[in-house]
Design goal:
mainly alpha, globular
Length: 123
């Protein structure tokens, strides 16, 4: 899909991929926000069913990403170092979230933990 737009140097391709991923992520958050704000601007409260669905979306994505990132690919071997790095990042996310109750901050802290430990491990 994006192949025609990704010509050029490796740096420009990486930047383009990051921009595409960011834009896609932005759209995934914008559409539900717009739908919700339209309902709220009409002075209508969200139905309990829709409210429950929206409350479950975030944790569901986190669970999917957690399972996907920790489990090895089908038929793959378990890399103990990678597993430990991911567990350290997960523990950081949990600790920061319990302290701040801010999902964004906790995810950034987990990413930073993983990145630093990965670098220190020679990855």
């Amino acid at each position: 899909l994006w192949a025609p737009f990704l010509g050029g140097t490796m740096t420009s391709r990486v930047f383009a991929l990051i921009a595409c991923a960011g834009f896609s992520t932005y759209l995934m958050r914008l559409v539900p926000l717009l739908l919700t704000s339209r309902r709220m601007s009409a002075k209508r409260a969200l139905s309990p069913r829709l409210k429950g669905f929206l409350n479950a979306v975030g944790p569901s994505f986190v669970a999917v990403f957690l399972v996907y990132s920790i489990l090895p690919a089908a038929g793959g071997r378990i890399d103990l170092l990678q597993m430990l790095l991911k567990v350290a990042a997960l523990l950081t996310v949990a600790a920061v979230y319990l302290r701040t109750r801010n999902f964004g901050t906790s995810v950034l802290a987990g990413l930073a933990t993983y990145g630093v430990l990965y670098y220190l491990a020679g990855g």
